[in-house]
Amino acid sequence: MHIVVGVSGGIAAYKACELVSRLVQDGHQxxxxxxxxxxxxxxxxxxxxxxxxxxxxxxDDEPEGPLSHVRLAHWADAMIVAxxxxxxxxxxxxxxxxxxxxxxxxxxRGPVVMAPAMEAEMWAHPATQRHVARLTAxxxxxxxxxxxxxxSGHWGQGRMAEPDELIEALRDxxxxxxxxxxxxxxxxxxxxEFFDPVRLLTNPSTGLMGVLIAHFAARRGAExxxxxxxxxxxxxxPDLRGYPVVSxxxxxxxxxxxxxxxxxxxxxxxxxxxDFRPARPRSEKAHKDNVGLTWEMQRNPDIIRTMAQRxxxxxxxVGFAAETEDPVRSATIKRQEKGLHxxxxxxxxxxxxxxxxxxxxxxxxxxxxxxxxxxxxEATATFLLDWIRDRLxxx
Length: 395
Description:
Distance between the termini: 34 Å
CATH superfamily of the largest domain: CoaB-like
Strand content: 15-25%
Number of strands: 19
Helix content: 25-40%
């Protein structure tokens, strides 16, 4: 992607260095334009070193040759302005174009993400809020500011959003909304089944697969509810409807509630649900000298099978199968037995399958079978969502 990064004059300009570096490392082509005040905080040479390209400031600068403001605006797929000071927000909201940054902004036809940064009182001022409202109405995505310690040493809302947040906002702004209107429930993470208040049965799942599916689906326009177990520690998107649970029975109840409240078009069951739970959990800690080594267990509900029986005639049902051997055959049998439209099989064990480690997966559906390319959970999430999109369209 071609990205223009605009940097205005504020102490937060140092964060723009990390932002530009991250964008370049992610494979984007980046050009930087600065205000003259920004150059008092970060030297243009810094950005030239990071991008390998000249940096422009004044309206008559020509980092890309004659009519650089036109060339850059036409070249850019998107623009990020970070930091955006109160003064710059005012000029851009009013359409004033007296330097290279504002000229490129007026000519840019791709998505624009802005990260305001200023003192809390300046941010709260009605004039600033009017300018932000006008920019938002013009289609600008405004990210932040956040609360925290400011340049003055005071605390308040005015800190520039972090580079990770801006990159996420850029991905959202530039993603095709091919799942718009789709209502989806996703499950993620392990469940906990307690023997007593301090001992439990669980598994190594981090919930990363389910979280990625939920995040990517929301980025593509879907309305997503995420039902997640206590092993999930990833930061969730603010537009996800979250249902935190602990046990398998908790998860079944939450999934039922989420499916009915939307009502959902798709259920993706990516959680690693414990198959069993103690038949008689203790309310007090069982001291090791007073208990035997045998615990009576009982089966947990099969969440995806139960939901397929109840809603499979009106919803797309997708399960996951973690296998240590012959994953395609095992998952094919499970898909048929549980009445699912599709199931994702992945190999686990020996360092594979859990967290962000090695990943190998297959999609077995009622309309075909595929080895998922990419060898990553991100690739699997994307492949599965593409299949869901196409399958819903065919229905």
